[in-house]
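From the methods appendix. Each design record in this collection lists the tokenized structure first, followed by the designed amino acid sequence. Records were kept in a plain field format so they could be parsed without special tools. The example shown here is representative of the layout used throughout.

RECORD:
FOLD TOKENS (270 positions):
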């Protein structure tokens, strides 16, 4: 038994090689993009395609400057605040729609209508309706990501197995045990997917909102770089929000892998 377990466990060298291959697979697309950018810099003016060293130097300046880093933090807080607000409202709407057919018929067309309105239109509406820039941005973030959260949570609730629900209810569990044992495992994958999708959407929307309605943040700084015609600065500020999205995506993936580590891993690919 011990010998078979040792035989099934790959040696450390094989695990190290596998990890290196996975890391290289993740890095190679960025390496290719960087090489293409550097080659383009040989044929175009420097102000159009600045050196990647200049861009990374500007990134370092942003990260080490307290004043500029405060703009990055402001944008991050706006994204997270808007997503949390949209998730709470979306979950509440989804629960109401799942329990009431009349509410579903009333709210579904409204959510579909909101989903079809461009983010730039919401920016214009918010500027006309509200005075405070922070509330404008929060409103824009919530209303643009609300439909996706609502429909994703609603689909997860409706996708729960009715037979499993009847079996669990036959044991007469408390509300907390019912939520932990059946509802949360059923809806969490769709919720995490909704967060991953809305994270990318929110990062794009917040920059547009800050461009026209804020006095600070990454969007505001991008507007300053456009006025200075500073491509290196524009790329450096753009990379700040890209780094944030990548970090948050990694955190959500870690949560997903930890929460569902009990799932069996299939040896076949679809």
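DESIGN:
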């Amino acid at each position: 038994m011990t010998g078979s377990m040792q035989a099934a466990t790959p040696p450390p060298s094989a695990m190290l090689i596998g990890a290196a291959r996975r890391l290289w697979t993740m890095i190679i697309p960025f390496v290719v993009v960087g090489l293409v950018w550097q080659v383009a810099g040989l044929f175009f003016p420097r102000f159009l395609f600045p050196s990647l060293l200049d861009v990374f130097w500007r990134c370092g300046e942003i990260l080490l400057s307290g004043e500029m880093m405060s703009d990055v933090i402001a944008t991050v807080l706006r994204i997270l605040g808007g997503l949390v607000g949209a998730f709470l409202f979306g979950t509440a709407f989804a629960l109401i729609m799942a329990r009431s057919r009349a509410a579903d018929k009333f709210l579904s067309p409204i959510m579909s209508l909101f989903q079809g309105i461009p983010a730039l239109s919401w920016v214009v509406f918010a500027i006309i309706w509200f005075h405070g820039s922070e509330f404008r941005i929060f409103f824009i973030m919530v209303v643009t990501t609300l439909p996706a959260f609502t429909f994703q949570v609603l689909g997860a609730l409706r996708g729960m197995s009715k037979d499993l629900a009847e079996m669990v209810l036959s044991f007469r569990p408390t509300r907390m045990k019912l939520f932990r044992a059946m509802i949360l495992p059923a809806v969490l994958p769709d919720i995490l997917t909704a967060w991953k999708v809305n994270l990318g959407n929110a990062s794009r929307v917040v920059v547009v909102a800050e461009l026209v309605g804020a006095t600070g943040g990454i969007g505001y700084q991008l507007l300053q770089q456009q006025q200075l015609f500073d491509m290196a600065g524009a790329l450096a500020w753009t990379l700040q929000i890209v780094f944030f999205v990548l970090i948050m995506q990694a955190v959500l993936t870690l949560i997903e892998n930890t929460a569902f580590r009990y799932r069996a891993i299939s040896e076949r690919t679809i």
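APPENDIX NOTE: The chain has eleven helices and no strands.
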